[in-house]
Every structure is written in C-alpha cells, then in structure tokens.
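Let us practice reading a record.
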Amino acid sequence: MKLIRSHFETIPVPGWQRPGRVRFALITDLHNNMYPGLLNLLEEAAPDYVCIAGDMVNRPTRLMPPHFTRGYGCLSKLAARYPVYYALGNHESSWRRNPIHETSFRQYRRALEKKGLCFLDNESIDLGDAENPLTLSGLTLGKEQFTHHLKNRRPPESLEIQALLGEPRPFQVLLAHHPFYFDAYAAWGADVVLSGHLHGGQFRLPGIGGLVASGPQFFPPYTKGHFRKDRSHMLVSPGIGTHTIPFRIFNPREVWFLDLLKE
C-alpha cells in the first residue's frame, strides 16, 4: 500500500484554445515529516507545475527552534525536477515573524530560491499566453486569520485580497493555505483555489467527513474535497504530514492533481 496517494480532479477552462491539459500538483502540510514515495508518485503523474500550499515546516515555539530540514530537502528535490511555486502557510509566516528566528527563515527562503523555487508571497506569475490566459497567485494571510481563538479570528475581505494581489486575471488560480475563507476568495475573483491546512480533519468518519480543526472546532467545513461557489472552484487537499497529533485515521496522505482542459 502506498503511504502517499494520488487524487485527480479536472476543471474545464472557458475560451481556452490549448490542446491537451495543464496539470498542477498540489502539495501541502508536510510539517517536516518524512515523504516516502512522493518523488515516484510525481514522476508517474508528470505535472507541469508543482504548487506548495504552505506548512512544509514547523514553526519555532518558546521551547523549540523551527524544524525545516526535511521540508527543505523535499523542496530542493522537487525544484530540481519541476517548476515549483510556494505560498506560505501559517507555520512559515509565524517563523518569519519570530524576531529570534527570522534570519533563519530568510536563509531558508534564499537557499530554495537559488535552487529555482519561486515563492509567491502575495505575488502572481503569468503561466499562460494571449489565447490561453493562466495566472497563479499566492496569498499570505495574517496572524488574525489563523489564530486558534475563534472569537478573535477575523476573515479577510475580498478588498483586502485585492489590496495584496491586485485585480484577478483570467484564468485565475489562487494558492491560499486556509480554506475557511472560500467566500472571500470567490468574491475576489479566483476561478480555482488550491488549499490545505486542515489535514483532512485529522480523523475522518465515513459518510460524515473530517472531525476536527485547530481551535478546536469540530466537524469543520472544507476539510477535504472539491467545492464550488458560483463560478469558483476550491480544491482542499488533506496534505501529506501531521502536526501535534502524530497520526491520521481513515485519512490517507494525498497529493492532489488538477488538470485544466479547454471547455
């Protein structure tokens, strides 16, 4: 049995003239774990681009430094094989905000950039052409969007996203670590959102879904799946690692693949 599984989704793109498909691999929430079989899985699927939706590392705490060596090793190997685009999760953002460890985050980022990996830290990149528009953007949310204290958690507004990323472009793919804010992503104008963060709900109950999110919040929305709101799609991967609770139940580690095809 494979320790990391593949999951495939397809979304048609109106107006595209491109023959064939464009395939994104979505990798998220490694949390500095081991990643057995990941490179072979990607080789079999042959993605055009690899998208990292954050939390490849573990943030520093009062008692521990950041843990990132396995995450760095994984990303280095990926960057040697594929175009890799990396949006920050809450662990990377927390590491960067830490005044004691911010220098090590800058070193981590620079070292990966030297290997060809592209960080999308409230930035966008054009991957298409005039006949087949395709923009990939990476959204970095603030601490207030990730706090475990639900009363203090503040959803982002679509205008805030616009201030960070500018106007959405056709066809707009958004890397956004936290899936709870799908309404804001859709209102901003994302055609597709690629997300993770919730580890599939950690424990999944057949017929019900994910059990828990940070907070804790029981039976949270958007733990795993393909969701739709008006013309927007959101793919939420259960990720490939663990954090805090070091096991998963009925919740395999997965890499999700998105194929974009002309309508």
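A brief commentary: The mean pLDDT is 94.
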